[in-house]
Fold ABC transporter ATP-binding protein.
Amino acid sequence: MTLTVEALSVRFGSTPILRDVGGLRAQPGELTALIGPNGAGKSTLLRSIAGIERYSGQVSLDETLLDSFDIAERARHVYYLPQDSGTRAALSVFEAVLLARRTTHVSDRRHDLQRVRHTLQSLELEAYAERDLGQLSGGQRQRVAIAQAVVREPRVLMLDEPTSALDLHHQLQVLEWLVAMARERNMIVVIAIHDLSLAARFSRHMWLMGNGGRVQAVGTPREVLTEARLREVYAIHAHVDWPADEPPRVTPLSATRSLGGTSSWQNF
Ligand SMILES: Nc1ncnc2c1ncn2[C@@H]1O[C@H](COP(=O)(O)OP(=O)(O)OP(=O)(O)O)[C@@H](O)[C@H]1O
Ligand SMILES: [Mg+2]
């Protein structure tokens, strides 16, 4: 099973947002990182794959165009967790995650309860199981939203900046767990993420979007993350290191010019 995107374009009104996005592949069992500057179109791309945004082009799972599914079927196969997600509904953490599970699985109640408990443990949330959602910190709420997405067990799970509110421990812990889960359940997992060191460390393949809603590069982290490309796409000088005995490191050194313009911030 491969997720494929070809010739995908999206317009908001008369403004093109994604232009002929293609050559994207994501495989089950591994994490694919979607990276690129603010406004490049990462969220729009993930929303399009989920069928939330209208697009022209082809999004397919193996030979099946996702367009051929009805909305409910597509939502069962492909789940998108938005950035800034996290509900404050009047539910406990356990109830909220169980409710998410029951939207896609209705057969075995005991198994569902077990799966919810196990997921809360994996995300270090078991101590908050009985707590109301409205009484959580931002990072705890983000982890609950990840738990809700995961227990649905879609074939394609897309998480939009899932670690943006997390402390360093939980960034590592959540990403390690997502990698293990993708492998164990043979799931396609695509995450949009701004931290390039973490993206390089945990993803097997990367999709790099640039300004103008175009794909700038796809490939392994080593192929995609070159210093020249970071200068071009992110307008930064950066060191990219691939130490043999440590995780990869992308160290941003300075901003070279305003992104999307020619003026330098130093002129202000
Ligand atoms: N509803 C909308 N109407 C018009 N333009 C929009 C709308 N939503 C997003 N855009 C524009 O589309 C472009 C892509 O936005 P998108 O949210 O996909 O970027 P992104 O890569 O996810 O950025 P970020 O890293 O900030 O999350 C941006 O220029 C944004 O201003
Ligand atoms: Mg976004």
In short: Residues 12, 17, 36, 38-44, 83 surround adenosine-5'-triphosphate (ligand 1) (CB under 6 Å).
